[in-house]
Amino acid sequence: xxxxxxxxxxxxxxxxxxxxxxxxxxxxxxxxxxxxxxxxxxxxxxxxxxxxxxxxxxxxxxxxxxxxxxxxxxxxxxxxxxxxxxxxxxxxxxxxxxxxxxxxxxxxxxxxxxxxxxxxxxxxxxxxxxxxxxxxxxxxxxxxxxxxxxxxxxxxxxxxxxxxxxxxxxxxxxxxxxxxxxxxxxxxxxxxxxxxxxxxxxxxxxxxxxxxxxxxxxxxxxxxxxxxxxxxxxxxxxxxxxxxxxxxxxxxxxxxxxxxxxxxxxxxxxxxxxxxxxxxxxxxxxxxxxxxxxxxxxxxxxxxxxxxxxxxxxxxxxxxxxxxxxxxxxxxxxxxxxxxxxxxxxxxxxxxxxxxxxxxxxxxxxx
Length: 367
Known about the structure:
- The longest helix has 31 residues.
- The chain is built from 13 helices and six strands.
- By secondary structure, it is an alpha/beta fold.
């Protein structure tokens, strides 16, 4: 059992942001667009980027929780690099009336220049000049987002301000490899656009319940971004389930073994997820004996890692034993699962655990 067996995937990824902004042409290595802001609400106004100076242009909004979290970090970086000009530009606001009061309330916690985007009268916040010429042009629809402008007036880096420390240090010291950074950003942007298309295909596969479509969609996603295979619940687990539904049992076993040798197999939770996917009674799967035995071995390893003290893992192991035909072991381990569930997060599911225990006992009695 897993405590997080939730419904179908509705948003692809984990930790990977898919931009929905219009495909732009602005990237690392390009000349920085002009600063087109309505006004500066804190600090001296900056009208243009001066040659020989480094700038950080960071985009945020008063309603953005993650933006508020990064404000102190930006203030620390500004203090650490007094020769670099930091400018926080408020974008995507429903109303700009709250920007200055917010900045005033922040006081010294927001220790850098702050400006508001130039938004036409009666237009939406995403129609601002900076939102279009910077964010949308660089296919950045998520905030906070930061741009570092080097001494030549070119964009040297684009990303989350929380990851800005190292590139900022190198740009400031003159050791930043702009050519390499530009190529990496170009490749990342291309992959992002590919993933946007694959997200649609993945959603179609989910809605169709066609396991062949699911296998193809996952394979294409992993081909573009191999790191996503580590996301078992939303990516690789879907492929494993689909292979079993297609009755491609050997391929399913080979894939499960591959996953168990990855980082997934290094944790009790990962091994439990892997085993439960195979023996989940609600999944409607018919795994063969080899796959069930693999589930037994994976759940047993997970149980050992958890020192036999996790109710959910015990439930998975008991179900794997039951499916393998070892009803005596299934009863023994399920009784432990019920005991462990009391006073734990699994207590809400204790009736379900008890139902399975009774099922295993009846099967054992028949033997």
